[in-house]
Amino acid sequence: MVGLSVLVGGGRDETQVRALLAPFVAALAGGEAACVVVDDGEGVDLDRWRGVLADAAAVRTVVLEEGRPLIAEDVAGSAGVFVAGGLTPLYAELVVPARAALAALPYAGFSAGAAIAAERAIVGGWTYDARQVAPEDAGEDLDDLTVVAGLGRVDFAVDVHAAQWGTLPRAVAAVRAGLVTQARAIDEHTAVVVRDGVVEVVGAGSALQVRPAEGGVLVS
Questions:
Q1: What pLDDT digit, counting tens, does each position of 79-116 carry?
Q2: Using alpha carbons only, what angle is made at residue 93 by residues 207 and 100, rounded to the nearest 5 degrees?
Q3: CB 184 within 8 A of CB 177
Q4: In terms of Cα–Cα distance, which of 160, 215, 161, 164 is closest to 183?
Q5: 142-182 residue pLDDT tens
Q6: Is 162:9 a contact under the CB 8 Å cutoff?
Q7: What would the pLDDT profile of 28-60 be if each residue is shown by its tens digit?
Q8: E-strand spans in the chain?
């Protein structure tokens, strides 16, 4: 995939997250970042997202909600787009329709924003084929493992909070079932940086790769 995508697996430590976003901020080249946040009905913590983008020269905040998806005008003139975290299925519903408008811009995604960056996005669920594949609390208000169209920034699916929420088995199940061709399970305070197709893992944790293998899957 062409361009820059920085995919952060989550985490509450602002200093660490800001460091992970350094490649994205550098790509802005002093321009404005569009910060896209989805309100799921419980309000949004804009100070949190402005905090992790504090190194950007300027930030334009775009708040979406049910019935109000992202449109091209929301990001027009920005130097890059940061998509925040929250309820992943709702982020997919409201952000992915603007896929074409984001395609040429540097991109950073945090948690939900990282998950929907994939061509085929794992957006939640905790069971597959009547078997548990993740903790129920990590289901994102979905029961069945659910994969939907994403932004197409990267050619692998992304699951997040991997070590902290126990979501690696969900990524494994998605690959094993053929719902996605491959996946990365990213820990908190960890990022996968993809620049013109070259993948680098940075931060405090791991971003395990899940690929098909004869008779099952390979995790490395």
A1: 999 999 999 999 999 999 999 999 999 999 999 999 99
A2: 80
A3: no
A4: 160
A5: 999 999 999 999 999 999 999 999 999 999 999 999 999 99
A6: yes
A7: 999 999 999 999 999 999 999 999 999 999 999
A8: 4-8, 32-39, 58-65, 80-83, 107-110, 120-124, 127-128, 131-132, 146-149, 157-159, 183-186, 190-195, 198-203, 207-213, 216-219
